[in-house]
# Entry
Amino acid sequence: MIAIIDSGGANIASVQFALQRLGAESVLTRDIDQIQSAERVLLPGVGAAPVAMQSLREAGLIEPIRQLRQPVLGICLGMQLLFRRSHEGDTDLLDIIDGDCTAFRPAPGRSVPHMGWNKLHPKSQHPLLAGLPDVAHVYFVHSYFVPVVAPTIAACNYGDDFTAIVAQENFMGCQFHPERSGQVGARILQNFLEMPS
# Structure
């Protein structure tokens, strides 16, 4: 069973449907025991970092998430929450991976949020990237980003180079929405499901 942590995000149904298409059952939960006993954990998120962190704090989930040992995948805001701090509301995050989230700067021909399809640039080999095509495009919707850091395994560019996929031990994250990224996103989710727990 896959536990989807309920952090108040709005993209839960699409994530669950994507998992169902891959034959995986999931449960949306804030129950600590259910999360700790799951084979895999997803941390999705759409919205603002301060709101998501407040939701996790009120549910008593911050320390339990930090202590998870099974594969964990953050999606969009959920990936950002794995890092140290966000400039959005000057918010302390889960501080699992070293790095800070900062805002995109609007520029001529480059609106914010970054919304639409963009190309992944692999930085290192990782099981999450197995079987992806040489040219892989995924779907983004975000105004904040994490610069490329040591655990970045795939980057992207939107005026700035930023982390598209991160992996550190059992914690992984996708800044984009794999559930909305066609066959490439489905393959990434499948790779996550096939990782040993």
The first helix runs from residue 12 to 21. The radius of gyration is 15 Å. The mean pLDDT is 95.
